[in-house]
């Protein structure tokens, strides 16, 4: 890009300012809607709200573009470089904060009030960590008196004489944060796939028939020839030994295994009847308790 013509530089400046203006409008709309509507007053939206201020300040720096690039020691060039070095990496850290909230919500069962308590820590880290090198670079010069901040083609930033600092103070930390977010996001997406137990629970909520719930959650096991077979098959034993009903008495048509092994009534404990309303009520209570947590986790997933 060092060999660009003046016309190409002019086109680059126009594109930078157009894109920065669009970004600034989007950030302003985010801040406005958050302040005017309580509907957006959620943890995920608050993190975006906090990040929008840093994005607006970054857009101010990029809209300056090449205005001070020929005056590297001027206050305008140094201020522009400070803004880009400090607030541009902060956006990546805010995305990491969203990924951390996903982790805390899914695996440590954090609720909205728990996440709100750690938001001041996010504010300090996301804006404080980039502030340290950004502010320090304002006062560092080499032996020739060349400042760290200076011309960087598109705007004032870390000058070409200090290119190693671009990698050490910007690109390497940014890519490290991105790589840290990746396994959290992938693991969260795979964990959000409903399991068999969750599917059965949702079926029980939609269908209040307790017989289906009992059929899905417990299946009796049978062992051919076992001495305790009559104890593990309560329904068949009840039919074969219920003398109060003549139609259920043994008439020679039952299996030989049942006739050879008399029923042991003392070893069979009747299964308690499940109330038609108890199971759906329990599942509705669990669903209400976990709704906010799962909704927050899904919101973070879509954005992180």
From TrEMBL:
<feature type="transmembrane region" description="Helical">
    <location>
        <begin position="47"/>
        <end position="69"/>
    </location>
</feature>
<dbReference type="GO" id="GO:0007189">
    <property type="term" value="P:adenylate cyclase-activating G protein-coupled receptor signaling pathway"/>
</dbReference>
<feature type="domain" description="G-protein coupled receptors family 2 profile 2">
    <location>
        <begin position="12"/>
        <end position="179"/>
    </location>
</feature>
<keyword id="KW-1133">Transmembrane helix</keyword>
<feature type="transmembrane region" description="Helical">
    <location>
        <begin position="12"/>
        <end position="35"/>
    </location>
</feature>
<feature type="transmembrane region" description="Helical">
    <location>
        <begin position="120"/>
        <end position="140"/>
    </location>
</feature>
<dbReference type="InterPro" id="IPR017981">
    <property type="entry name" value="GPCR_2-like_7TM"/>
</dbReference>
<feature type="transmembrane region" description="Helical">
    <location>
        <begin position="81"/>
        <end position="108"/>
    </location>
</feature>
<dbReference type="Pfam" id="PF05462">
    <property type="entry name" value="Dicty_CAR"/>
</dbReference>
<feature type="compositionally biased region" description="Polar residues">
    <location>
        <begin position="214"/>
        <end position="233"/>
    </location>
</feature>
<dbReference type="GO" id="GO:0005886">
    <property type="term" value="C:plasma membrane"/>
</dbReference>
<dbReference type="GO" id="GO:0004930">
    <property type="term" value="F:G protein-coupled receptor activity"/>
</dbReference>
<keyword id="KW-0812">Transmembrane</keyword>
<dbReference type="GO" id="GO:0007166">
    <property type="term" value="P:cell surface receptor signaling pathway"/>
</dbReference>
<feature type="region of interest" description="Disordered">
    <location>
        <begin position="209"/>
        <end position="281"/>
    </location>
</feature>
<feature type="compositionally biased region" description="Polar residues">
    <location>
        <begin position="242"/>
        <end position="276"/>
    </location>
</feature>
<keyword id="KW-0472">Membrane</keyword>
<protein>
    <recommendedName>
        <fullName>G-protein coupled receptors family 2 profile 2 domain-containing protein</fullName>
    </recommendedName>
</protein>
């Amino acid at each position: 890009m060092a060999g660009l013509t003046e016309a190409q530089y002019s086109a680059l400046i126009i594109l930078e300012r157009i894109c920065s203006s669009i970004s600034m409008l989007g950030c302003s709309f985010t801040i406005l809607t958050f302040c005017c509507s309580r509907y957006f007053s959620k943890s995920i939206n608050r993190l975006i709200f906090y990040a929008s201020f840093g994005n607006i300040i970054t857009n101010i720096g990029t809209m300056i573009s090449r205005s001070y690039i020929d005056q590297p020691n001027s206050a305008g060039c140094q201020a522009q470089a400070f803004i880009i070095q400090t607030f541009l990496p902060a956006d990546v850290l805010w995305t990491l904060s969203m990924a951390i909230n996903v982790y805390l919500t899914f695996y440590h069962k954090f609720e909205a009030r728990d996440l709100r308590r750690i938001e001041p820590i996010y504010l300090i880290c996301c804006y404080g960590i980039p502030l340290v090198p950004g502010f320090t670079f304002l006062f560092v010069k080499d032996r020739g008196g060349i400042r760290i901040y200076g011309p960087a083609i598109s705007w004032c930033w870390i000058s070409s004489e200090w290119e190693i600092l671009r990698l050490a103070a910007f690109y390497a930390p940014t890519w490290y944060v991105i790589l840290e977010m990746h396994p959290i996001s992938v693991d969260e997406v795979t964990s959000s796939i409903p399991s068999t137990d969750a599917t059965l629970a949702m079926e029980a909520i939609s269908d209040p028939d307790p017989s289906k719930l009992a059929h899905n959650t417990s299946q009796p096991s049978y062992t051919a020839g076992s001495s305790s077979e009559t104890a593990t098959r309560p329904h068949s034993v009840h039919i074969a030994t219920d003398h109060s009903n003549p139609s259920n008495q043994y008439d020679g048509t039952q299996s030989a295994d049942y006739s050879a092994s008399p029923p042991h009534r003392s070893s069979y404990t009747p299964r308690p009847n499940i109330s038609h309303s108890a199971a759906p009520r329990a599942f509705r209570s669990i669903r209400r308790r976990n709704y906010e947590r799962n909704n927050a986790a899904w919101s973070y997933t879509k954005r992180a």
